[in-house]
Design brief:
Length: 292
């Protein structure tokens, strides 16, 4: 199902790059969706040329069925949305932000807007958030997404953290010797945020081989490993502040900031009243937290 929207856009526009621009995702992501769809159907839907894409006979038949069906879904959504405005909201966010920043604020949001029915969609791949049919999203990047109005919540700032137990077992960490303990990694396929290599490079340290013996699929699992004393993790300002303040994690070195990247609250151009209301509340919550 997730391949149908890229298929319809590519078939209508005759170009993977044009479809990528319209949907706000990368051209390789469009290519992967189309290849997966063709593999699932067992036949080619496009003829790829230097000038773009041309539908095969099978592709034309499939487009004739898919395009009207997606149009009907879009129309039905538009008809229903006014009746549900103010009561239902679909919010997309990545795993780490959902657990560390959003979940602690949900009780206050529910008290402020008791009529709200909130549907959370979580994922760590940009294309998953970009293609999701949502009313509001919190995304990481530069803030430039087609069809979205983005308001920055905070800049990217990362620093190494570990548990007090890990620090006690590896006292060299107090002097910034990160080789004293295992470094915890997330899967880094096209990672938009800091990796250990990019973080070390931003500090001006010489290129070095970083061991990858501990790799985790999501940030909550990586943080759980750090809290259990498994090694040193990168912590992000805004996500691990409470854990550091509580003493459950210890910040080992000063943070490295990239002001051109961060977490953004994104509203589609045609945002619902419910989405605008929740966005205003979340922005106010972040402003209150960031105040001295």
């Amino acid at each position: 199902m997730t391949a149908l929207i890229p298929f319809e856009a590519a078939a209508r526009l005759g170009s993977m790059s044009a479809a990528a621009r319209e949907l706000g995702i990368s051209q390789p992501a469009i290519s992967r969706h189309l290849a997966a769809l063709e593999a699932d159907l067992g036949q080619a839907l496009f003829i790829r040329t230097r000038r773009g894409l041309r539908l095969t006979a099978a592709g034309q038949t499939y487009q004739a069925a898919v395009a009207p069906a997606l149009g009907q879904i879009r129309d039905a959504t538009a008809r229903l949305r006014p009746r549900g405005a103010g009561r239902s909201l679909r919010l997309a966010v990545n795993f780490g932000f959902a657990q560390q920043w959003l979940m602690p604020r949900l009780p206050a949001l529910r008290r402020a807007q008791p009529e709200l029915v909130l549907h959370l969609l979580t994922g760590d791949r940009e294309e998953e958030l970009a293609l999701a049919e949502v009313d509001l999203s919190i995304r990481f990047g530069t803030g430039a997404w087609p069809g979205q109005r983005a308001a920055k919540l905070f800049d990217e700032e990362a620093f190494p953290v570990c548990s007090p137990d890990c620090l006690a077992r590896h006292p060299q960490l107090r002097d910034g010797d990160l080789s004293a303990a295992s470094l915890l990694h997330m899967e880094e396929s096209r990672s938009p945020w800091f990796t250990w290599e990019s973080w070390l490079a931003a500090r001006g340290e010489a290129a070095r081989v970083v061991s990858r013996r501990l790799i985790y699929p999501t940030y909550p699992l990586l943080l759980q490993a750090a809290l259990a004393g498994e090694g040193v993790a990168l912590g992000w300002r805004g996500l691990v502040d409470a854990l550091v303040a509580e003493g459950r994690l210890v910040q080992l070195l000063p943070g490295v900031k990239r002001a051109d990247r961060g977490y953004f609250l994104c509203l589609p151009d045609a945002a619902t009243a419910a989405a605008r209301s929740v966005a205003d509340w979340l922005l106010a919550a972040q402003t209150k937290m960031a105040a001295p």
